[in-house]
Prior knowledge:
Layout: H1 2-21, E1 41-46, H2 54-69, E2 74-79, H3 87-95, E3 101-104, H4 128-135, H5 138-149, E4 153-168, E5 182-185, H6 189-197, E6 201-204, H7 210-216, E7 221-224, H8 226-231, E8 240-256, H9 257-262, H10 265-300, E9 303-306, H11 309-318, H12 320-329, H13 332-344
Parallel strand pairs: 1-2, 1-3, 5-6, 5-7, 8-9
Antiparallel strand pairs: 3-8, 4-7, 4-8
Amino acid sequence: xxxxxxxxxxxxxxxxxxxxxxxxxxxxxxxxxGAAPKDVITMTWAHTTAETTAxxxxxxxxxxxxxxxxxxxxxxxxxxxGQLGTDRSVFEDIQNGSITGMVCNPAVEVxxxxxxxxxxxxxxxxxxxxxxxxxxxPDFIKAINAEYEKANIRLLGVTAQGxxxxxxxxxxxxxxxxKGLKIRTMENVYxxxxxxxxxxxxxxxxxxxxxxxLQQGTVDAQENPIELIHSQKLxxxxxxxxxxxxxxxxxxxxMSKTVYDSLSDDLKKxxxxxxxEAMKYYHEYGDKTDVGNVKxxxxxxxxxxxxxxxxxxxxxxxxxPVYNSIKETCAPSVYEAFFNAVEExxxx
Length: 348
């Protein structure tokens, strides 16, 4: 936390210096305390997962693209694995401009952007291609970005890497087997409501403490995409992964609106283009590495099993009240744009 506070202070100075320039020479202060070269804008991006993930490698591609296309005018520094703090604290620092941006599951952003709860809709996509197309729909992005901007955040786009799947030390093939199951969830009211409706006992736990919680039996089960089950070695503590595919694992690419608005129009265009290309790479990288992730998990002895279709249909029916809860606090423009996209992009 000391490192985070120090960096936050220095980066705040950086952004203030940049804004004061107001169209003239833009300078910044590097996290190590040294002055960045004159006329260079240093952007700081963060995430809380391992360097093997699509988040990190997508950001590396963004760094490569924006530094090249801006001819060195923009430099990007990336801090992985929670080095600058939790998702929540980093989001707050992005709001005040002391950190430029991050790639993060929007489930933790709901308390700042209520309409981000649209990403928590369960059992809504036909498959991964359907989900990615919906999340990239221009009308939907325009509507949800308007809500992010109210929190001083620019939403550059949304990516998705796999579905969140249930893991446990027993194979679960019916809704009845979920009753009383102590399952770790994120601190997200809609995730908690989903598992409560299915009869489980949701237990919010920090992601960094999840492995130990499973190891010590504090929780019996958890739900995450294959990528994170692999990167955090959660499969070492769970015998089964059930393909429930209940929620898509989305990532919001968020940037400080203060920082974004301070850029010239040509630099904004370069940021938008670099982010779009980096998101494509994120998907390519994630899909490729998940093949190896599945092999590693299965070689270890953890079984990946499908859930009967009738069970999934029953889970979706039981979870219907979650839709109403989300609709109550989601901006109507966002809710409508989202479900229009869901219908428009269904396989014909």
